[in-house]
Amino acid sequence: MNTPCTPVDTERTVLYVSNSPDQELVEFLAASGWQAVHAKSTAAAERLIERGNIKVGLVQLPDDCTSQHLSALASCMRRAETNWVAQIVPGQTENELISRFILDYCFDFVTRPWLNDRLMFALGHAHGLSSLRQTRVTPEPSLGRHGMVGQCEAMQQLYRRIDKCGVTNAPVFVAGESGTGKELTARAIHERSPRAGRAFVAINCAAIPPSLLQAELFGHERGAFTGALQRKIGRIESAHEGTLFLDEIGDMPHECQAVLLRFLQEGTIERLGGNALIHVDVRVISATHVDLDKAVEDGRFRSDLYHRLCVLRLVEPPLRERGGDIKLLANYALSMYRQDGARKLRGLSSDAIVAMSNYQWPGNVRELINCVRRAVVMSEGRFITASDLGLPEADNGPAVTLAEIRSKAEKDAIEHALQRHGYRLSEAAAELGISRATLYRLMHANRLHQDPAGGRASNPNGGTDAGDEGQRHAPSLV
Ligand SMILES: Nc1ncnc2c1ncn2[C@@H]1O[C@H](COP(=O)(O)OP(=O)(O)O)[C@@H](O)[C@H]1O
Ligand SMILES: [Mg+2]
Prior knowledge:
The chain is an alpha/beta fold.
């Protein structure tokens, strides 16, 4: 038997976790072509799992198994790659905690004294399924070189634009709904610019009380106002030679807009209560979720400041328009928070993916990450399901078949043609490219009639056609 210090060959290897190993079992495993690697403690088991790609584990529950034993085991069995088979003594499944533990963390269980075939079947099956999962597993989405997850066309275009913005010094304005990643974009631009090694200073204009915003941006001298006990360097000055990110600029009060404009025009600031002009070299990136054009129109935002800030403009796509990226981002969120769950989570179920794709995500990526994080904690099974996500049902209305759509389109087209031609059937038929007889038949099939109250009821069997004689009757749809 291997000990924890020998390298692990992961093919047909079973990690045997037991504080009192059963020598007979180990010999049987070896004789059956399994290499058993023994771990006496959960810490040792964790180290082995870290080192090798262990597909199968056999965990022998102690006869006097307590909840402490179980939670220590659970922490190392939570990893998704290993399929565990529990070895228990008769009667242990009657213990609520143990049966819950087996359901949550184990692929199967065998009862001692084990039956050779049963044990081989369970281990072989666990190994097979684990290999299957590994070959199908999509690589865990990682942050790309722009620090973001996303491969859809809109994101690819955003990446290209970020690269372009990186090489110039011009101000960039980032538009987009809340939670779409405006701040990430600002950071990515900074990282790709020659200022990358310098400070990136972000300030959220909406989060600071208007009366304090100016002091926060420009700094103040000692005694500038009551409570200004010492000199404070403002955010603009601390971004010298780096990038200043003005977040939620749409919420900036008017007085502050005027001072900011002066700084953008002249490249100098004055600390509050001071009179020295200080030259500051910063690259400005701004963002807001409000419609800045509308704010300018309404007089809430200065148009001269708007033009200074929006030299280059990027727009973050809303999450609902990112297609398959929703799944990538959900898996990314799962990989970040997987450890928060009480249970070993294998992933997202397909109904969860469907529910996420149908949801509109008003809070965008931020909402999706929080939603997955909450589901990790709340989920009861091995996969996060649609109900764990707690998303409202998509309101798509009743399902409509293609035949229903066609027939509605046909009825609408006939009705409109009839209306346009004042119910002169020959003209309506000519426009529709059908014979008068066919039009009559279709009107009948679609239960489209001329209004009998108009004087002349339509007669699908031929005869007088009121419309054709130039009389107009309001149609009545039956
Ligand atoms: N494409 C993305 N990939 C990974 N995480 C993202 C992505 N977009 C946004 N996020 C995450 O979502 C949250 C909101 O992003 P943020 O940049 O603050 O959005 P905004 O400024 O538009 O409100 C942050 O936690 C951010 O890391
Ligand atoms: Mg933001």
